[in-house]
Design a protein that fits this description.
alpha/beta, eleven-stranded mixed β-sheet, seven-stranded mixed β-barrel, about 35% strand, about 375 residues
């Protein structure tokens, strides 16, 4: 429930975590109430891309950078058709944006899209709490939604958990569409939309790929109806343990030996398709400064992340799977979480992070070239 108000900055607001911790501040964006999973993002820039990333569906994002909104909001940097975060938490919102590209303030954009937020709280303390206790359910309440703390806590504890949530169909396109190649068309890719970001098909289009974006409900027959040279599985929200349909479709692609690339949720889908399990991380990886090593080259990349789940695959050995040998190709240097998989006997690989990274960094853009190389090799 939200109500629009121009006086939100003076309206008291309360943030209540499911373990009873309470933070008090001021309303930011729309006034009302919202619920979701509290997570934190360590990026110091790129907030517009974060807000419009469908992978943040049903999550309340805490920004660790203290100053947010400095560059306002423009009409070019949206990663999808709308803001997907359930709520937004900042310490010191910019009073006046400073950018020649800005069209409106971040506060105005949140208000216009009905996104309830809170400002003026100690986001460092909140982030430390989530690191120690883990991501958890949260509610933000402002205006007439504010009640006594006990009543608000009871409502937060009634909200659904992220574990077990099947959300990709809620954010994906309902109708297929085509992103044309830029310049000469060289390849056709069928992209299964599980929460795709706009920059992903653009990165492929830059390489001469015509991208047919398909709904999350697409079947193997739908995928091959576009006569693809390669198949892509996108990022997206929710628990990969619920994604039985995409797993089945991917197994159909693997059986045919078509070049395959997956990003984020697509990496978890590949893990499941190969027979590995998945698990929920304590507080996840979110931000644009995560160090990952490409074990195939030894190179270390600074990368953009947004994932709360990970693949449970052995780091120190090659695994036998129904589709041949597989190995972990990328690993996070902070905590040894699996950040990539590749098959050794079929043209398929995936990464857990975001090489399209519209806001940067761009260390991992080479992965799109690697996908092109697989399609070139298959054609040859």
């Amino acid at each position: 429930m939200t109500t629009s108000t121009r006086g939100a900055a003076k309206t008291p607001a309360v943030l209540v975590l499911e373990d009873g911790r309470v933070f008090r501040g001021r309303a930011y964006g729309a006034v009302g109430e919202t619920f979701g999973e509290a997570v934190f993002s360590t990026g110091m820039t790129g907030y517009q891309e974060t807000l419009t990333d469908p992978s943040y569906h049903r999550q309340v994002v805490v920004m660790t950078a203290p100053h947010v909104g400095n560059t306002g909001v423009n009409d070019e940097d949206m990663e999808s058709r709308k803001i997907w975060v359930s709520g937004y938490v900042v310490r010191d919102p910019a009073r006046v944006p400073s950018s020649w590209r800005s069209r409106r303030t971040l506060d105005e954009e949140l208000d216009a899209q009905g996104v309830v937020g809170i400002s003026g709280i100690d986001t460092r303390a909140l982030t430390r709490h989530l690191r120690e206790r883990g991501a958890m359910r949260v509610g933000i309440f402002s205006g007439g939604a504010v009640q006594d703390d006990a009543a608000l806590l009871a409502r937060v504890q009634e909200a659904p958990q992220m574990k077990g949530a099947n959300l990709s169909a809620e954010v994906a396109t309902t109708e297929p569409y085509v992103v044309p190649a830029i310049g000469e068309k060289k390849y056709t890719v069928a992209a299964v939309d599980l929460g795709i970001k706009g920059m992903t098909p653009h990165r492929m289009a830059e390489r001469g790929i015509e991208v047919h974006v398909l709904p999350a409900t697409a079947t193997v027959e739908d995928v091959y109806a576009v006569n693809p040279d390669g198949v892509f599985f996108s990022n997206g929200p929710g628990d990969p343990a619920t994604a039985d349909h995409p797993v089945s479709v991917m197994q159909g692609v693997l059986e045919r030996g078509t070049p395959l690339f997956g990003i984020c949720f697509g990496n978890q889908i590949l893990g499941r398709a190969l027979g590995f399990g998945t698990y929920k991380l304590k507080y996840g990886h979110r931000g644009i400064n995560q160090p990952v090593q490409d074990r195939t080259t030894g190179k270390v990349e600074v990368t953009a992340h947004n994932h709360g789940f990970a693949v449970d695959a052995p780091l120190d050995q090659v695994s036998e799977t129904p589709f041949g040998r597989a190995e972990v190709s990328h690993v996070c240097l902070n905590d040894n979480v699996v950040e990539g998989l590749q098959l050794l006997d079929r043209p398929a690989f995936s990464v857990q992070y975001h090489p399209e990274a519209a806001a940067g960094p761009h260390d991992a853009a080479y992965l799109f070239d690697r996908f092109v190389s697989l399609m070139e090799g298959q054609r040859a």
